[in-house]
């Protein structure tokens, strides 16, 4: 069953590898016996479903979570159960890919109008006059 990222983008489960490791933190004796922390590995180089642009953006925004060979490694140990930690790392991977898929809107650079420049200068003059009127007068 593929993991839905965006309406037009999903990742097959066979491209994601999840292993379970021992977790520290809350859980009592269960922490010492059961591997509840989920560690997700997603190879961006071999991911056939990801467009090249998203792959490159993932490399930029993943930071320390990506290895030299292009494998994203996420560890989830916030919860006490394997299932919730598994869902957590899958959601975090989906969020990371959504962030990489986001295209910033193109901004057309504009210049301030003549009226805007005049209003700015008038405001500066008014402020300057106000401050000048507050100064103490020195008679020589």
Q: Tell me, what's the shape?
A: elongated
Low-confidence stretches: none
> What name does CATH use for the topology?
Double Stranded RNA Binding Domain
Q: Give helix % range.
A: 40-55%
Q: What does the main sheet amount to? A: 3 strands, antiparallel
Helix/strand-derived class?
alpha+beta
Protein name: Peptide chain release factor I
Region (Disordered): 104-140
InterPro entries: Pep_chain_release_fac_I
Organism: Kozakia baliensis
Describe this structure in words.
The protein is built from four helices and five strands; from the N terminus they run βββαβαβαα. With 140 residues, it is of the alpha+beta class. The radius of gyration is 27 Å and the shape is elongated. It has one domain (3-101): Double Stranded RNA Binding Domain (2-Layer Sandwich). It has a three-stranded antiparallel β-sheet, covered by helices on one side. Strands 1-2 form a two-stranded antiparallel sheet. The mean pLDDT is 87. α2 crosses α3. The protein has helices at 30-33, 52-62, 82-101, 114-134, and strands spanning 3-6, 9-11, 16-21, 37-43, 71-76. β1 and β2 form a beta hairpin.
Summarize the structure.
This protein is an alpha+beta fold and 140 residues long. Helices cover 40% and strands 19% of the residues.
Secondary structure layout:
Blueprint: E1 3-6, E2 9-11, E3 16-21, H1 30-33, E4 37-43, H2 52-62, E5 71-76, H3 82-101, H4 114-134
Antiparallel strand pairs: 1-2, 3-4, 4-5
Helix pairs in contact: 2-3
List keywords for this structure.
peptidyl-tRNA hydrolase activity, ribosome binding, 4 helices, 3-stranded antiparallel β-sheet, alpha+beta
């Amino acid at each position: 069953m593929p993991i839905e990222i965006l309406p037009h983008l999903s990742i097959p489960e066979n491209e994601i590898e999840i292993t379970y490791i021992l977790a520290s933190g809350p859980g009592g004796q269960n922490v010492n016996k059961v591997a509840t922390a989920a560690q997700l590995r997603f190879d961006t180089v071999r991911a056939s479903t990801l467009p090249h642009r998203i792959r490159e953006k993932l490399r930029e925004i993943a930071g320390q979570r990506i290895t030299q060979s292009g494998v994203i490694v996420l560890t989830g140990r916030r919860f006490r159960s394997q299932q919730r930690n598994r869902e957590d790392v899958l959601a975090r991977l989906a969020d990371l890919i959504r962030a990489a898929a986001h295209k910033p809107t193109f901004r057309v650079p504009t210049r301030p109008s003549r009226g805007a420049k005049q209003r700015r200068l008038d405001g500066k003059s008014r402020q300057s006059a106000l401050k000048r009127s507050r100064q103490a007068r020195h008679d020589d």
